[in-house]
């Protein structure tokens, strides 16, 4: 369960970005946050993921499975993140991108390779281990990025308008693919979007930041 | 400011303070103390201004000061005008710059001497017309007015300023300005002078001052191309510092302070002139003239010719290094030989140069990475004091603090080789860090966040994501580090106490000798080493990442 308790974010010397926010996302639920540009939706995701710039102060609490995330650095929070772009690391092959995300507890080497191959097959990318990420289509990149995030066994998933750059036909596919995986793995997921159709597709609650 | 990375920042802070700030301050302080008569090592313990009286009594001092000011200001101004004209009129020339940018001053000076001297290639070309059978009795290098030195400095600094201008230009919508200006009836030259340059100049003001400070304190190029009796002040100071009579150290130290003051005065005068020019430019613009017949070609042409001459000088260096017989007035050697190379006198200085370059560059890169990573982890912008610390060795004349630094290193009982490495790093590290800073900051922070979200801690993010993504800028910074280290003359001369001969010290020493081939071999190797480093830096990333298409953008960065 991902919980935000009276969470408020204030830029240095400024006013709070939005009214204190309280919400709870149970495992497998995809909750949507909507709101006008500049209100701080992405900043909120930064705060949850542990990437908040020191130019902001935060009040309230962020809890995951009952534990406060605030004292933890980003890498210890196990909160997965997806952006508008897939942001596959351009110097690594598709498979090595997934290997970067794969939980180090998965051993030995053969088991790691098998886990990655299975994830690639799941994403319709079987045989793509050695491919250059630059040669993938937009949809393939989005699926590879999701697999990379899931292999890290996240306890929560943050989606920062990850479908906004995809064309309409692909968008519905990738959206379904992402939400199905989040539900199947019981990951509480927070989606930030401008698009009402994204919000409707989640089948979950929709919050408006104000 | 974040608490993250405090330990790393602490280590970097202590290292830079102990390794850079303190030695420079101590160097300046000990030189200043000697200037005021306090140098216990030679028994001088009475604080007085006698050293200054001695300095002002030196024959030819006024002429040395005049030469320093004139060659420094003229070469900087001509380099700036030439670079601006080329950028506006012939930007393709930038493709020819890499060899000149990479070549150390001493090597280019040697090549230019082979071009300009009375027995040089230009005299050979003119010989049939002028009827010369022997080299003409003209002072075309080492001339008393310092014209050859000015020309040499322009040949080296114009490419540097053009590179800086090209980088700065990318931040402005130059094409749109030109289109807009043309639509308003202005000539391209009018748009350049009234609209583009006033915006570009502030972006390269600092490199201009670095060039000015360097030109006023250069020693190696001045020894090869400049006048000897009297020489520019920095050369005179070098002679006094290395005079067999240790008492000369006192007036030399006073002269070092005088040079610092002279450079500060020149920069102040330059700033004043800038303001005056800016006002005049505004008046010109307000008159609304379109200046349709104005062209920058008259400045671009000589600048392009000088760049061509610089490149040709490097070719001459290569020819002399393999020439067997090459009598005046032949345009080409009668025969080529490897005899000079077989003697192998170049091997030890070449190896020492390479070892120094690798050591200083590796240490500088490691420190620069630690510095930038510390800034990253603390979410810190660069502090003003840090920028000042980085720029100090580039704006201060080397001779202003190297003697004091040498005194300090002697007290620390430092062996010559580590002392040279330390002294060279004062100049290598700032260039490496400044070159690496922009690409480092241009890294997409979301890549790093994505890595952190996947559970990668700071060290793994650095080693697996940042450094590979920055492979091309890291290699470029390393190549620059090698070029800067290779070019160092005074730090090697002072700290090495003559026991650390490098290609630069050899090239300068051999330049005044009779054996042109030996000098050419040193000069050619001196030019080749940084060029090779740049060639590797440019060719390795595409090779390593040949199967990663998106890394091309990172390589081009």
UniProtKB/TrEMBL annotation, chain A:
Coiled coil: none annotated. InterPro entries: AAA+_ATPase, ABC_SmlMolc_Importer, ABC_transporter-like_ATP-bd, P-loop_NTPase. SUPFAM superfamilies: P-loop containing nucleoside triphosphate hydrolases. One of its GO terms (molecular function) is ATP binding. PANTHER family: SPERMIDINE/PUTRESCINE IMPORT ATP-BINDING PROTEIN POTA (PTHR42781), SPERMIDINE_PUTRESCINE IMPORT ATP-BINDING PROTEIN POTA (PTHR42781:SF4). Residues 2-209 form the ABC transporter domain. It comes from the Bacteria. Keywords: ATP-binding, Nucleotide-binding, Transport. This is Putative thiamine transport system ATP-binding protein.
UniProtKB/TrEMBL annotation, chain B:
Its main location: membrane. Belongs to the binding-protein-dependent transport system permease family. This is Putative thiamine transport system permease protein. It is found in: Cell membrane. Pfam families: BPD_transp_1. PANTHER family: INNER MEMBRANE ABC TRANSPORTER PERMEASE PROTEIN YNJC (PTHR30183:SF6), MOLYBDENUM TRANSPORT SYSTEM PERMEASE PROTEIN MODB (PTHR30183). The chain crosses the membrane at residues 12-39, 67-88, 100-127, 147-168, 206-228, 248-273, 294-326, 346-372, 384-405, 417-436, 469-490, 520-545. GO terms for cellular component: plasma membrane. Keywords: Cell membrane, Membrane, Transmembrane, Transmembrane helix, Transport. Residues 61-268, 350-537 form the ABC transmembrane type-1 domain. The keyword Disulfide bond does not apply. It is a multi-pass membrane protein. GO terms for biological process: transmembrane transport.
